[in-house]
Design a protein that fits this description.
This protein is α+β, with helices and mostly antiparallel strands. It contains eleven helices and twelve strands. It has four domains: about 40 residues, no CATH class; about 70 residues, no CATH class; about 45 residues; about 100 residues, 3-Layer(aba) Sandwich (Endonuclease, Chain A). The strands form five sheets. Strands 9-10-11-12 form a four-stranded mixed beta sheet, with helices on both faces. Strand 7 and strand 8 form a beta hairpin.
Length: about 290
């Protein structure tokens, strides 16, 4: 068995191969490689290019290079954005910030995240005054005390500054809302309501000139009453369903009664009122 020394087609390194294999390769026009690694590398058509922004090496296919009109390549999306936005940034006018004295482009407000946080930072007194003004503004607009679900952003700030939401309401000069169903409310049309939510619903009917009745008993049960009745619709506000066992039991009983007697029952939830009043959408068929 004779071995001859030939050169690798890819790396040009010399290596020994059987004479029969060399003859076979010449006969069929095969390329001779010194190793499997060189065979794999020879099949790669991609080439290495330097990033046009940072100079880092990036590999792209030859087909991509042919299709490229600019012949510019980038190692990442960030480098591409930096390179392409640079001419536009240079064209922007520059201004000097009063607080830190640094030069920034006119379309920017702050020079950094630190500067932004410092500018927006408020002391304890300023935060309290902001919450109080928000509560007063709500009272002037709606003529009632807001529920915490209606002002959730202010509620989180109030917990930080005042400790509780009721303390913030008292600081604004108002009496806090009682626990749900603890006090009775009188609507503008004179109807007695068991909660603030029922008062809002009652006054919505009045604002739409919809005739409605309060506390109408279910058939055969005089003590079990419906919150509102409009024409042949029974409208209930299930505010504490799933929170109190007795209340949930009563809600289920009302559902069974409505099915038994074919009553058209409309169920309202706290999410229909707070933080945004959605009665215009939910009860639109009554108008």
């Amino acid at each position: 068995m004779t071995f001859k020394r030939i050169f690798c087609y890819y790396c040009n390194a010399s290596f020994l191969r059987k004479g029969s294999q060399i003859k076979e390769g010449l006969k069929f026009g095969w390329k001779q490689y010194c190793s499997q690694k060189c065979i794999s590398k020879s099949k790669i058509t991609s080439k290495s290019y330097s990033c046009s922004s940072c100079g880092k090496e990036c590999i792209r296919k030859a087909a991509v290079f042919k299709k490229s009109a600019t012949k510019r390549f980038f190692c990442s999306q960030s480098c591409g954005a930096t390179y392409n936005n640079h001419p536009r940034i240079l064209a922007l006018p520059i201004k000097t910030r009063k607080n830190c004295g640094k030069q920034i482009y006119c379309q920017s407000v702050y020079c950094s995240i630190t500067c932004t946080a410092h500018a927006k930072k408020r002391d304890h007194t300023e935060l309290k005054n902001e919450i109080i003004s928000q509560i007063k503004g709500f009272c002037e607009k709606y003529s009632r005390i807001p529920v915490k679900k209606e002002m959730y952003d202010a509620y989180k700030k109030a917990r930080t500054s005042f400790g509780t939401w009721n303390a913030a309401v008292e600081a604004a000069g108002f009496k806090p809302n009682p626990v749900m169903f603890a006090n009775k409310y009188i609507a503008k049309d004179g109807h007695k309501c068991d909660s603030l939510a029922e008062k809002i619903i009652d006054e919505w009917f009045r604002s739409k000139d919809i005739l409605h009745k309060r506390s109408v008993p279910y058939p055969e049960f005089k003590k079990i009453t419906c919150d509102f009745v409009v024409r042949d619709f029974y409208i209930e506000f299930f505010g504490l369903e799933g929170q109190h066992r007795k209340y949930t039991k009563m809600v289920n009983k009302k559902r069974r009664l409505s099915k038994k007697y074919g009553i058209k029952l409309i169920k309202l939830k706290p999410s229909h009122l707070f933080p945004k009043n959605q009665l215009d959408q939910v009860l639109s068929f009554l108008t």
